Amino acid sequence: MQKIMLMFPGQGSQYVGMGKDLYEKFPVAKDIIDQLGDELKKIIFEGTEEDLKNTQNAQPAIFATSIACFEVLKQSTDFNKFEIVTAGHSLGEYSAMCASGIFSFKDGLSMVKARGGFIQKASEENPGTMAAILGMDKDTVINICAQAGQTGVCDAVNFNSPGQIVISGTAQAVQKAVELAQAQGASKAILLNVSGPFHSKLMTPASEMMKEELNKYEFNNPVYPVITNCDAQITKDVSNIKEKLAKQINNSVKWDASILNAIADGAGLFIEIGPQRVLSGLMRRIDKTKKVLNIEDLASLEKTLKELNQ
Questions:
Q1: Are residues 73 and 95 in the same domain?
Q2: Which of 13, 66, 90, 161 is catalytic?
Q3: How far, in Å, CA of 280 to CA of 52, rounded?
């Protein structure tokens, strides 16, 4: 039986018009996106990039679009002939868990909206920024963060692929880390246009609020195993999933290790489900021998179904 990894993108992958053709053609996609309400739906389909980029809009919008794409795929092919494992990058972890049956779309949407609000609040109370460091190994970046951390908070937070690591923290410390990385030969070290120091220690208040929020919901054991961000482990039962979701907010996203663990577990085909192809791009840097498909619109859906139904 072929093992497939379903990958769900995080914040930053949003764009105006995402999911629109699937919304217009598939009732299941329409039903999901309609649950966002008219105001947010209008922002997704015909708003401005600026409005959509706002954390409290972007997070539910990406979550809903990704689940709409997933449900269309599920309706269009027989999943029983595959072994499935899921994972999502940061916010995308909620999409992966919803697709795995851990919670309903309705509960997931409620959690994602709360999470966006907590992160926004923590970002306003503990302002900061993020930067991408390219062409450096993990240990060197961690060491640079430790040096820059003498002037404030600076954490290595997204281990995206070999040679692509994102750092996060207070503006002064992150700027210092960028300068150190440039001086030590990084191929690129650039500040990112983000509204907060995501996944750093500065997000601890949001993590604590999310821990309380998650206690309001009932979780089920996953139908498909989920590889979790904070530890890159294949998770098959529900016992510590709430703890991992809370921890994810102020800890690093171990994406490259998640992919490598899926490959070690036998995954041979990867499908990115949701807007853009950010994770497909990272996949090429992690293991370019693996086939990667995606679903974000009718054209990509048709191409993916053709491959799956061969």
A1: yes
A2: 90
A3: 22
